[in-house]
Write a structure and sequence with these properties.
The chain is mainly alpha-helical. The chain has a domain of about 45 residues. It contains three helices and two strands; from the N terminus they run E-E-H-H-H. The chain has a two-stranded antiparallel ribbon. About 15% of the residues are buried.
Length: about 80
C-alpha cells in the first residue's frame, strides 16, 4: 500500500488559522484532527461532529503528519 498524496486535501493559507495546515480550505486544521484522534475519538465520531470532513480527509491528516515526521531531521545522541 503506497503513501497517500495529501497535497490536494491539505491547504496552507496565510490568512486562515494563522497559516496552519487545514483540510480543503476549511477552518479545521490537521492538528485539530490529530488531537481528536489522540484523545481517543474514533473516525466515525469525528465525522459525526464535523460533517464537512470525509474519511479521506482524516487519512490525509495522518499522511501529512507521517510525512512531516519522516522529513524531521533528528540529531543523534552524543
Amino acid at each position: 500500500m503506497g503513501a497517500m498524496d495529501y497535497r490536494k486535501l491539505i491547504t496552507i493559507e496565510p490568512d486562515k488559522r494563522g497559516g496552519k495546515p487545514c483540510i480543503r480550505g476549511l477552518r479545521i486544521t490537521v492538528y485539530d484532527v490529530l488531537e481528536y484522534l489522540a484523545s481517543g475519538m474514533t473516525e466515525e465520531e469525528i465525522l459525526r461532529d464535523f460533517p464537512d470532513l470525509t474519511h479521506e480527509d482524516i487519512r490525509a491528516c495522518l499522511a501529512f503528519a507521517a510525512d512531516r515526521e519522516r522529513k524531521f531531521a533528528s540529531v543523534p545522541p552524543e
